[in-house]
Write a structure and sequence with these properties.
- The structure is a single chain.
- By secondary structure, the chain is an alpha+beta fold.
- Helix content is about 15%, strand content about 55%.
- The chain has an eight-stranded antiparallel β-barrel with strand order 1-2-3-4-5-6-7-8.
- Strand 6 and strand 7 form a beta hairpin.
- The longest helix is centred in the first third of the chain and has 32 residues.
- The radius of gyration is 28 Å and the shape is elongated.
């Protein structure tokens, strides 16, 4: 009987060891390949790059159509509001080209519909123009856009930003109305 009991104990030890290794392997696999935790907007920072179209509207003295590019950072304030800071540049080709630089901050309201996120907001901008010398202006803008969360860490979006320059400080500025339409790409980071 002792040899049979010893054989049963050996078999049990063998199976228990295999079971323990399988459990440890499964736990390690789950830890390594588990999906990332979803974060709310207040826990995220998004770095963006955008390219698009710019138009100097309502000022016939300026070259109207141009190409635009920009970089930005978006910080979630809570689950519905975010703060965007952005630097943009636009080039309007002509025999006397127009260069426009825009530094702005905006507050946006996000309508989170899971994969697609429409948003809208308002902002204030410093606008520099170079044509026959440098001029600076103060502007305000609205923004309307939609982001597609292509993956948890990537987004692609479209945004429209009309600018209004009510004070017309610059002699050669883009007043009274300027418009950009951009395709934007973003990388999402967790703040914590």
């Amino acid at each position: 009987m002792t040899s049979s009991a010893d054989a049963n104990d050996a078999d049990f030890s063998l199976y228990a060891g295999r079971f323990a290794r399988s459990c440890i392997g499964a736990l390690v696999g789950i830890a390594l390949f588990a999906p990332q935790t979803a974060r709310a907007y207040e826990d995220q920072v998004v770095l963006t790059l955008d390219v698009g179209f710019a138009a100097a509207l309502a000022n016939d003295e300026l070259p109207q159509n141009g190409v635009a590019a920009g970089v930005g950072v978006n910080v979630g304030l809570n689950d519905a509001w975010a703060l965007h800071a952005r630097f943009g540049y636009a080039y309007h080709p002509n025999s006397d080209p127009l260069h426009v630089s825009i530094v702005g901050v905006e507050v946006v309201y996000l309508v989170d519909i899971l994969e697609f996120v429409p948003y809208f907001g308002l902002g204030i901008d410093g606008i520099g123009t170079v044509r026959d010398g440098f001029d600076a202006d103060l502007g305000f803008h609205a923004v309307v856009g939609i982001d597609w969360l292509a993956a948890r860490k990537w987004l692609v979006g479209l945004e429209i930003r009309p600018y209004v320059l009510p004070f017309s400080i610059a002699d050669n500025g883009v007043d009274p109305v300027y418009l950009t339409v951009d395709l934007r790409f973003g990388v999402v980071f967790d703040r914590f």
